[in-house]
Design goal:
With 265 residues, the chain is α/β, with parallel strands linked by helices. Helices cover 43% and strands 23% of the residues. Strands 3-2-1-4-5-7-6 form a seven-stranded mixed β-sheet, sandwiched between helices. The longest helix has 14 residues.
Amino acid sequence: MSQSFAAPEGRSQEALNAKQFGSTAAEYVQSAVHSAGADLQQIAEFAARRLGPKAKVLDLGCGGGHVSYAVAPHVAAVTAYDLSADMVAAVAAEAAKRGLSNIATAQGPAEALPFADGSMCAVFCRYTTHHWPDVRKGLREARRVVKPSGLVVVSDIVAPELPVLDTFLQTFEMLRDPSHVRDYSVSEWVEIATQAGFAVTGLTRRRLPLNFASWVKRQRTSEVHVAAIRSLFGAVSEDVRKHFDIRENDDFTIDEVVLELAPLS
């Protein structure tokens, strides 16, 4: 006999995501990790080189809005879209503060976009897809709203292909942030993108160093979970420690990728 269990009220994945990031919106607007980086510069260069001043683009899962701020000078209009109403409000305030009048905001899930088919010249997703409850549906939505000649760019943390490294990454990510769903591997991303109707036309791999103290502070990770992560860091094999470059102060390094996706006809 099968049994089903309902999640506690207000604890759906979407509700958890909104709660987790609504309370930390200001930290993500000010985050040094999110407001800079070679991948963000790469996205800005895409906008400047490949879109043009008449383009309309979507910053999908905008978080602190750093993609929106980076591409706004190069295009006609940016929609900063996020599940968290608090995050969207923080981005609107910061855009006004910066005088970026071509940034509009909207709120909702990645899996159900309130935009017309083919209405966007480009869709940018940075450091967000690992929170989506259904990444495949979200990417299909990105495919739906982007023009046939458009561009989708995904920048995110990626899991190593080796299972022990993958398991370690997912474990400490969820300890730090219970709204974490999954960091996908590059091979998973290629499969997901292909199934969503894209060709992978570019792939840039990088390593991202992180300061442990600011990493947990930004997410307001509980003391018990911080202790659990530190304990886990101290217990892993040398091969795992070497891959993530875990140092004495628990600063570490993870893998990231920028994927350029072209819609298939």
